[in-house]
Amino acid sequence: MSAATIYVPGDSGALSMGAEAVAAAIAREARRRGLDLRIVRNGSRGLYWLEPLVEVATARGRVAYGPVAAADVPSLFAAEFLTGGDHPLALGPTEEIDYLKRQQRLTFARVGIVDPRSLDDYLAHGGYRGLGRAIELGGGQIVEAITASNLRGRGGAAFPAGIKWKTTLDQPATPKYVVCNADEGDSGTFSDRMIMEGDPFVLIEGMTIAALAVGAASGYIYLRSEYPDALGALNHAIGAARARRYLGASVCGSGRPFDITVRVGAGAYICGEETAMLESLEGRRGMIRFKPPLPAIAGLFGHPTVVNNVITLASVPVILDRGAKFYNEYGLGRSRGTLPLQLAGNVKRPGLVEIAFGLTLRELIEDYGGGTASGRPLRAVQVGGPLGAYFPGAMLDLAIDYEALAGAGGLLGHGGVVVFDDTVDLARMARYAMEFCALESCGKCTPCRIGSTRGVEVIDRIIAGRDRGANAALLRDLCDTMAAGSLCALGGLTPLPVLSALKHFPRDFGLESEPADAAARS
Amino acid sequence: MLAIDDHDLGTPERKSGANSGAMVTLEIDGRGVTVAPGTSVMRAAALAGAAIPKLCATDSLEPFGSCRLCLIEIDGRKGFPASCTTPAEAGMKIRTRSERLTHLRRNVMELYMSDHPLDPFECKAGGRCELHEMAKVVGLTQVRYAAGGRTHHDLPADASNPYFTFDPARCIVCSRCVRACDDVQGTFALTIEGRGFDSQMTAGQHERYIDSECVSCGACVQACPTDALMEKTVLAAGQADRAVVTTCGYCGVGCSFKAELRGDEVVRMVPNKDGLPNHGHSCVKGRFAWGYAIHPDRVRRPMIRKTISDPWREVGWDEALGYAASELKRVQAKYGRGALGGITSSRCTNEEAYLVQKLVRAAFGNNNVDTCARVCHSPTGYGLKTAFGTPAGTQDFDSVLEADVILVIGANPTEGHPVFASIMKRRLRNGARLIVADPRAIDLVRMPHVAADYFLQLTPGTNVALFNALAHVIVTEGLADEKFIAARCDPREFGIWRKFIVEPRNSPEAAEQVTGVAAEKIRGAARLYARGPNSAIYYGLGVTEHSHGSTAVLAMANLAMVTGNLGRPGVGVNPLRGQNNVQGSNDVGSFPHELTGYRHVSDPVLRAEFEHEWGVTLDPEPGLRIPNMFDAALDGSFMGIYIEGEDIAQSDPNSQHVAAALGAMEIVIVHDIFLNETAKYAHVFLPGSSFLEKNGTFTNAERRISPVRKVMAPLAGKEDWEVTCALSNALGYPMNYAHPSAIMDEIARLTPTFAGVSYAKLDRLGSIQWPCNDAAPEGTAVMHTGQFVRGKGRFMLSEYVATDERTSARYPLILTTGRILSQYNVGTQTRRTRNVVWHAEDRLEIHPHDAEQRGLRDGDWVEVASRAGAIALRATITERVAPGVVYTTFHYPESGANVVTTENSDWATNCPEYKVTAVQVMPTTRRPERLPPDRVIAAANPGGGR
After folding, report:
1. Per-residue model confidence as pLDDT tens digits over B516-559
2. Which one, of A387, A385, A380, lies nearest residue A495 by Cα?
3. Class assignment of domain A331-421?
4. Which of A284, A291, A453, A463 to mutate to probe the B interface, most B CBs <10 Å?
5. CATH 1.20.1440.230 fits domain A426-521
């Protein structure tokens, strides 16, 4: 009998839930029982409330158990989980888990399934088919395909990737660069990390295609320092890709050179802003550059540079593989394709939900998330990270779509959704938004550098009940100045959470009473 | 703080050129304006008369976009872009004023003022604080943010720099200082530390200014829009109320300055943005070290004495000049017409130098006039005139911005020519390649964002061997620009030279044995230089002050010709002149054999022109050079001298010999601002006027004639040119000029290359590069463009001949000399300023290997002994020098570096061989008679403050 294959995620989310101890316990127990086991450290399926989620390859496919603690391991063996035996933690066939089954995983197609350290596994699951197609097409047609797919930047700005690539392609200056922004700093987001830890080759393939498209020979991944596991996974994968000529002097024998270097940031949120990231990559303080010039024209070291987020680049291979039309058929309005939503905060079932645009917040939070973890009524949802707006329960029927959220005074950002129950104090959250801005401001422009600190002070006065009306007016005026006058999105968008809190939850600021329907419906 | 009359357009000028596209027309507040492509909307608006409020922008720096005061509205675009960072585009419709913009700007200003005193009366920048000015402009009258918020008001000020203070409580974190330090000066000493509200400007690694890498160029102080960075003189004296444009009196860069005055008192010197040599930049000397001009040591009354052992007796001008004239006449009567002579300094104005040579030739009746260029750049004049036909550098300074390869030989620009070095460093940061040939690892070899591709650390005295080897590689590897040579150079002489240069003794392998530079490095450097496409040579006294200095200049000229690197921007052979007016004092006839414009005195037609103008008969024989004067004095045939502005007892080689010669003379007249070393041997002392006290012109290293304007009244009552005139009149030869402009008119009348120069034109153009005549009415930036001035370029054989000064068992080390940024030459001026804080004594640099052999530790006293003499210095152990080579500066007369230098000199021009002296270095208990550094610093500033 061949060795059984067990999957214990090496994803750092799973690790934080004790996956390492579980893997060790399984190996120990197998040895004790004299069993020959192959333990694959896969990525996470993104069902975080079930982590560590252990899967076993069985005749009827992979079956899941979770959340598994090390102490559960002997009983799992006793229940013959290696052949899919029943157990209180048994979840049945993984793919049949409702949360997963209802998703449309294109970008995350392999995450949690493959061994992220195995290039063969990647190839066996359709990897590098997109690159093969890209080599056939060549620069201009790759850009056309990306344009036709309507892929928009998943980092938050939602700028059409095709237009960006076209701009860089059209630049006569050389060398050109592809830079992957992997400084995933938004609170409540983790999709970049999951890709890098769970399917690093897809990012490498996406960057390689981007390089072929625009004529770049070198690429950089700017990785936040808080992701050591992703660093290991990326460097291992880059090494493996190089060894098999997927990177190097002639990518897949195409005669086109491309290689990737991973650079680790130093903990500044602002370096997730593309120009500050470029400054940091060049070895300087992470300070915002003014635009124009756009990085696509004068980016890294002053040269034409494609800067895209991890998810954007990781979505490229499937577009090339299955065609722009296939990808473009997903989605709603001008938001095409799928988006990996990251559900977090006070929610029963946090995790990653990749699905076509158009789902409502309510569907996400209730159908997938199962409502609040505390069981108390939902009061607010922050969408799009620390610079996103707070929406009251009454607005949960908003569609998850760039334009719809913008129209409601918010933003979709990087797709993080954080849920709060009725114990939240939105005045404190507004203060926190200003405090976050003050803490993370690069200090270059005045509205952000001074304004965020003054914002904290003004909110403190409002909370303390001092001259509330005048201070609220001052706060609104300050937010207007920050939004209109800041150099980058940090200062420019901090007013979003502040003003949305002030608008939807004035009672928390001791201002007029809260509109009746704000909390009622959740 | 910007200059008092600055009209700041916000962002730098963009030039419209062949590659930059068509001019752009846009509409600003309904007014059409046309600008060069790439011009910012801010600048376009300012040019259209619709200045936009701003704080972080200034037109000496690239835009930054941080203050957010300059927001505008653009038709068809969302939001409020910053006008400083928005390039003007054709057809744009811009609004710089609207209710919305006013509101935004006022709110931004309110944020600034929430961390700054709103009351302009509290501001030390007086009415010239841009922050308070902008608060007024945007109409901010109150700050709504309640007191008690976070501020920077309690941060302590840093007054460690002798010339300026930094008060972080007044800083608005606009980064203008940091950007000025990075982009203008290129030192990278300043940074913003901390983030967000905690952002704070700091020098070095949170050090005090004085402890950081700061070179005190003053760019940050000038760039500061508030009173955060302020000159101490302004803090003490108050704001200026007027400014006079003049030219710096220090080095040969010849920076243009605005002397700012409050009443008649100089408050500060600010570099002139319109100044073509410096484009608004400065160094610590020109910017700050002008306090010597009002130092108590300044002599304010003429003095005479019978013998040099008598005490000085203060007298009136008439008595002093009368005594001087009678003594000169007496000596001439006793010893003959040739017994008198005169020496001028490269510190004098053109007009002063011209008058002194006229005095010697017309009133003394001989040609015994020489200038201190004898001891620095005389080989430059000889070499470049021989090869190209003009004894001057071939380019303007800005030419370096178009160079692709820069070859720096025997020059230390960051110390000696700091403002030009900043321009050069900017070009190097932007990608030019660099070759440094120097016995010592000068800063350019490796400094922030600059590194030499090749550092050729040659043995002192072997320049010619190195240059020949470079040329050998170029010729033998087929890298010569045959087309240029065929078109522009004398083919016969090139053929002879080619045969010579390809000989194996000129190969890199042979040169390696002589120079100590690896042959492969020489080959690499030669290929880089030849590849260019624009390669430029910059050199200094490390080339000229050798027994083969003239040969070395010829060899460099050969290098430039053989690679076709002449006659266009970005190339050339460029001497970095040490003193403000080395070029000019030579131009106006200060050499014994040449009348103005480098024309030989033996030419009867030429002489006739001068004789007609001057009304005398001129001696057709060339006169004595400086060293010949000394020899003749000791022979008893040269017995009287008039020395203006030059301290020969200190700065000429072999001081003992000079002292003996001066001591032998019967009448020594010293005309200087201080009682210098030479004055110890003088019988008449005529108090001079500093560059702030007179009118005239200086000519810098790029042949640029710039006006020197009287900023304050002469302390001793007379401008120097008036003194020379009075002396001449006392001698019976009339010299009467109403103003130095009349002297320049006379020079222009007599000198073809100056024919088009006049004060009126200088006032109009700011400065003029000679030749200036009918063919080039506004002067000439780059020489030898169509053809060489002499016709065909001349390849001269440049045989390497080793100096007679050899090392031996007794004198095993080679001493070479140089300069440091904060001090100037023999220190007469800079040692009377607070610059002594940075350099209070000369030290001997010695390699660790040589120090180890001698049991030396850093700071030990050593005796440096040569065949000529011995001095004592403290040692600094450093790998900047190679084993076998020691180095010192010569800024302190007490250390007497010239006591040890020899009498060897250049074969063609007698320029002394300062750069090579065989010495022994040994520990010593001997202490020179001099003040310890702390006393030097105290003595430099008896009045304090300046």
Report:
1. 999 999 999 999 999 999 999 999 999 998 889 999 999 999 99
2. A387
3. alpha beta
4. A453
5. yes
